[in-house]
Amino acid sequence: MLQRTTTEAPLAPPGRAGRRPWSPGRGNTLLLLPPLLLLFALFILPLGTVIVQSLAGPTPGLAQYAEVLTSRTSLSVLLYTFQVALLVTLGALVLSYPVAFVVSRLSGNLLHLCLAMILVPFWTSTVIRTYAWIVILQRRGVLNDLFLDLGLIERPLRLVSNGVGMQIAMVHIMLPFMILPILSTMRGIDQNLIRAASVMGANPLRQFLSVYLPLSLPGVSAGCILVFITSLGFYITPALLGGHRTMVAVLIEQQASRLLNWPLASALATILLLATCLLFIVYERTMRSAAGGRPAGEPA
Amino acid sequence: MVNNIDKHINSSGLKVGRRQVLGGIGLGAAALVTGFPSIVRAKPATMTVPNSGGALEEAFKVAYFEPFQKKTGIQILGAPYMDTARVKAMVENNAVDVDILNIDATEAAALARLGLLEPIDYGVVDKSNLLPEAAQEFYTLVDVAAYVMAWNTNTFNAETRPKDWTAFFDPEKVEGQRSLWKLAPQTLEVAAMGGGQPRDKLYPIDLDLAFKSLDRIKPDLTWWTSGAQGAQLVIGGEVDVGTVWNGRVYKPKNDGAPVDYTFDHALYVSDAMVVPKGAKNKKEAMELLATMVEAQNQATFSKAIPYGPVNTKAFELLDAKTLATLPNSPENSKTAVFQNFDYWADKGPEVFDRFNAWLLG
């Protein structure tokens, strides 16, 4: 990865020579304590309970895990969940990257307008956006009516109650999670580097591939991880727009609140968590080796 | 009782003698020792009753909570629905802060299986006029709703719609998009009837028959996961015919939405009331339940929301127009069948599993 030290080197402001600028030094780590305590009480502890619960069960041990991993149903639900999450991540990435690029070059009112257009849906409830997609995609919905009127189709297309509508809606709901990290990285890219590449004779494609794209990758990776992990746990949109197949969140809910099989629900949740962690580690490793030994996103 | 003693002491003012005071203390001590805490402990000022909310809570308020408050002075506060998982957590962690709650009857049966409920005190709750299905050991049904067939009136009318579940599950006989609840209970019952299982021999459900029915309509099938969505699918024309809970389409139909429904071959499903184990105000909870199943209050409830009474005496108090809207009025109940809650409490896990596997297949 290219150096970014030119813009980020901490320069002591003139007139304050001798005084080091503020940095999260030793004493200030105390400031981390409250959020850590909160994290422990509200996240680590409940998560631990889930893991313990998954091992307890009617027969203590790994019985629940064996049940999940030998059941064709739970395995294929898990597989489908990952497949959907991956497709949603790719879809969101393809749509978000150009948007983030354009918005990163804007300034003034236009920038604010675009940011508002990204953020307003972000602040709107997922349920409302899901219902909006139902209105658009259903058999007698806006889109089918339009196509029918234009004579493009003879029978209404089936866009909801199968994977298609669900994934369209999920991609839309996930867009801000993808755009915002990429946008913030892109706005930090030093334009001089592109100019330098141009001066060195790189054509625009080369400039993009060798300079701009690698510099924007930290944002891309942050966005992808955010979207992928959020998609894994998606509940409402698949429930309202999905077809026959089921995402794992529905299965966990069924076991936890309908069948009261908490050990099995916990085992499912733990497997989902472990698989996510594993993917995250693999991803970090590849990003690190791609970045020449430094963790992705960390400035040199 | 405590109030009465207080009043007596206060009104006699300075004239209260030493002997009387000692006597009072003695009475209190005796009450504690002999285990009549209800004599010394004051009634709660309020009780919280989790319920499904919306129109149901409104009807509960008018029909049950307000009369109860008038009678006892205890104010009832509604609270969001508590599912089985929450009740289990509450009881097992010894944190029971709810004395009585409204819950789906299959969930009540499951909670009863796990020993998480107090038995209903039928010394307080009069069951002499209740439906035989209503008065269970650990829960009492308080209304009768129905999982029924509804159709979009732009596609079908009462003549052309699927005549029964067999026709509903036969796309060759009746063409059209279908919708069902994406959950095993209720859906598998109607699917089994669609395969020809007679309604008086519905349990145990013939699962092979039920899944064969589902196979037939799978290409034309849209699932719903919430009552509002189920109604919207039919009203909006996304499907031509589907299942709904009768309360969800009653008002839209009256307001002129293109939807109609029938109580023919309906599956009765119910709201139950349960008292979690370790409830602090068990006595008052039973009194509230007794109020809820009184014929007059049940009639008021059925006028407020189109769910039928479980107290058979309530039918006599209702006019013909209201009766026509109720799933279990004598006229509407001829071909209906009651859901077997114990079946789901027993067989739930394996049937859910098979249903999920079918969904993936």
Task: Give descriptors for this structure.
heterodimer; A: 300 residues; mainly alpha; 72% helix; globular; disordered N terminus; disordered C terminus; B: 361 residues; alpha/beta; seven-stranded mixed sheet; two-stranded parallel sheet; 15 helices; 16% strand
Would you kindly provide a written description of the structure presented here, covering whatever features stand out?
- The complex is a heterodimer of chains A (300) and B (361).
- Chain A has helices at 5-8, 33-56, 63-70, 72-105, 108-123, 126-137, 142-150, 163-188, 191-199, 204-232, 236-241, 248-258, 262-290.
- By secondary structure, chain A is an all-alpha fold.
- In chain A, α5 packs antiparallel against α8, α9 runs antiparallel to α10 (204-232) and α12 runs antiparallel to α13.
- The longest helix of chain A has 34 residues, at 72-105.
- Chain B is of the alpha/beta class.
- Chain B has 15 helices and 9 strands.
- In chain B, strands 3, 4, 5, 6, 7, 8 and 9 form a 7-stranded mixed β-sheet that branches. In chain B, strands 1-2 form a two-stranded parallel ribbon.
- Chain B is globular, with a radius of gyration of 24 Å.
- Mean pLDDT of chain B is 88; it is low at 1-18 and 35-39.
- Classes of the chains: A mainly alpha (300), B alpha/beta (361).
- The interface between A and B is medium-sized, with 27 and 30 residues.
